[in-house]
Amino acid sequence: MEIHEALYTTRMMRRLRPDPVPLDVQARILDAAVRAPNGGNTQRWHFVAVDDPQLIHEFGELFREARGLEYEKFRTGQGPMVVPGPGADLTAHAETMRRIKGSGNYLADHFDEVPLLLFVFSIDDLGGANIYPAIWSALLAARAEGVGGVMTMVLNNFRDKVNEMLGVPVEEGWKMSAMLTLGYPLGKWGVAANRRPVHEVSSRNGWGKPFGVEVPQPLWPTPEPADLAAAG
């Protein structure tokens, strides 16, 4: 797969088929992940793949409970989901949250059908500088294999329980960074078109100064020359 296709079409996939992800596919995904850049080549990561149906069921129970906690925070005006992104109005944010909750509900209701969970752990990671490139590499590699997924932090609400269930050596300093649900998607891949354009979220030589070029629509597939114009 050409790199720009992977970059432009890798998106959150919460509706997954129950078909198992073969071990050789899992190996290629993680082999790409461990090639990610990391400071000093310290490789402060560990990945726990979970495909045992009983464990997945138990994590599904935790996932649903954790989502309930997050949406209760949202309902009462708390938590990170309450605040809209810069430049977004409240109505648009509310609609976005409605859609996200709908697809999240599907994942929660069908969690037992998810064929593969990937728990990602890190140690002394300086705010995620090492682990998040590895996670993104895993998601890109999964896309190249036709595997979709979503990264979620919601199980941090029950971090101690997750550590207990997976036997994490927390005494060594390991902490859960994220969980990925992975599988072959029911939906279709496509370019995320509902993004604010580059020139609205970018500056040059100082905050708020013009970026210098306008990008009114995605630049992949390769646009016509008129689609990329220097700002006046």
Automatic annotation (TrEMBL):
Protein name in UniProt: Nitroreductase
Domain Nitroreductase: 10-184
Keywords attached to this entry: Flavoprotein, FMN, Oxidoreductase
One Pfam family cited in the UniProt record for this chain: Nitroreductase
GO molecular function, one term: oxidoreductase activity
Keyword check for Oxidoreductase: yes
InterPro entries given in the database record: Nitroreductase, Nitroreductase-like, Nitroreductase/BluB
Organism: Mycobacterium paraffinicum
Keyword Flavoprotein: yes
Origin: domain of life: Bacteria
Coiled-coil regions listed: none
